[in-house]
Amino acid sequence: MAFEGKVYDLIGVGFGPSNLSLAVAVADEMENAGADWNLEMLFLEQKPGFVWHEGMLIKNTNMQISFMKDLITLRNPKSRFTFLNYIKEQNRLDEFINLKEFYPTRIEFNDYMAWVAQHFENCVRYGQTVTSIHPVTGQDGEVEYLEVSVTDADGQASVFRTRHLVVASGGTPTFPATVDVPQADNVFHSHNFLYRLNQQFSNSEEPYRFLIVGGGQSSAEIFTHLVGSYPNADVTVAMRAFNYKPADGSELVNQIFFPEMTDFFYELSPENREKMLRAHYNTNYAVVDSSLIRSIYKMLYDQRVVGVDRFRILSFLELKELSTQAGEVFAMFENVMTRETVQLQSDAVIMATGYDRPKRHPLLKSLEPFLVTVEDGGYEIEREYRLVTKAGFKPSIFVQGVNEGTHGLSDTLLSVLPYRASEILRSLHQQMRTVINSDEVTIGW
Ligand SMILES: Cc1cc2nc3c(=O)[nH]c(=O)nc-3n(C[C@H](O)[C@H](O)[C@H](O)COP(=O)(O)OP(=O)(O)OC[C@H]3O[C@@H](n4cnc5c(N)ncnc54)[C@H](O)[C@@H]3O)c2cc1C
């Protein structure tokens, strides 16, 4: 197993928007705030290059957040890593302004983030899947470093050492807990949607039968895409709810995604945090952008005008069983109102059933003896996203994107990335000063 003999100050697991914004924050602090920080950092990303939810980069799908909530503008609109600077560098500024669009396509926003990521090629290793993280004890008997094990696409293993760690590995695609999902190429989660479509359903003229399970934003986007791109396909959406419900993006409620709300939320009691999450669940979960709902309604109406029944939404259906036979998928549902059983046959089932973020990160398993846990089974975490550790453990571990329960609804989104990155850096700097007690590290903000 290869070990390059170097100890990094900070290793990041994953190089999605969260850790990318952290890299931007480091560069920005050094360039613009006069910080002088010799931070040796490395990000380990399993994908072969930067790409954001590539299986769902569907044409004509838009961001659900303003382009100004990019990787840095909130904190420093003058940074060279802003979305507007990217647009300027692409020679599209006039054209972009003329679009009068606050919500660019996801394809364009992905291109923006990939452009930013190119600036950090020297501190990212792509194609490296982190498989485990272990403590390394120093001569004084205290945990000094963390050993991060990775494998590359060829199965080659290596090990990296770091003084501090930031985990931002995103959510895990999830399926209904009560359903055995068959291992079949034609039953797949929405995160793989475009791959599977290109691989197995590449002839857009074929009369495929598609079934989508779920009633959130991904389901609505997939429904719209399949209806529009496969003119002869039969497309069904089955959902437990009555119908697609609009996301609450109204101005007053939307203030819940303001950066200062993180302080407010963090200070609440566990009961009040839970109440806040429940009360505002419809800002993000099992809801759909209202303009998309309108276009779906129009699509369904137009179909009625010409007397066709090629695509439809089936309400109140809870998935009970899935099986495959001779290339077909058999789905059994129960109608939650009538308790009747409904059987649907299709050529492919797309599970638009969301993502899971377990309270305890599987990669932190072997560090658990050193982590303080709380009543709900999760780890105790500081306001600045640092896990509380027990005595005798020197490394700091930060986690991003899994703290909705303590830091509020913005945590899994892009809403407060620049602030979060800056808060993590402040805390890291503090730890490096107090734990390592080194004069080498100075940062000026
Ligand atoms: C289709 C879709 C659209 C969305 N649109 C919006 C939107 O418009 N606005 C918004 O605010 N939010 C949106 N979100 C929410 C989304 O969670 C955030 O936009 C964002 O992706 C969070 O960034 P992240 O870096 O925390 O996680 P991710 O983007 O999931 O990135 C995590 C990275 O870690 C890597 N990784 C995971 N495990 C390992 C490992 N063991 N080793 C190495 N690398 C690993 C992954 O490959 C990935 O690149 C959307 C989500 C989806 C699924």
Automatic annotation (TrEMBL):
InterPro entries: FAD/NAD-bd_sf (IPR036188), Lys/Orn_oxygenase (IPR025700)
Superkingdom to which the source organism belongs: Bacteria
Molecular functions (GO terms): L-lysine 6-monooxygenase (NADPH) activity
Parts of the chain that traverse the membrane: none
Keyword field contains Ribonucleoprotein: no
Cofactor(s) required for function per UniProt: FAD
An annotated GO BP: intracellular iron ion homeostasis
EC number of the protein: 1.14.13.59
Catalytic reaction(s) noted: L-lysine + NADPH + O2 = N(6)-hydroxy-L-lysine + NADP(+) + H2O
Keywords assigned by UniProt, alphabetized: FAD, Flavoprotein, NADP, Oxidoreductase
SUPFAM superfamilies, A to Z: FAD/NAD(P)-binding domain
Enzyme class, UniProt record, top EC level: oxidoreductase
Pathway(s) served: Siderophore biosynthesis
Family in the record: Belongs to the lysine N(6)-hydroxylase/L-ornithine N(5)-oxygenase family.
Record-given protein name: L-lysine N6-monooxygenase MbtG
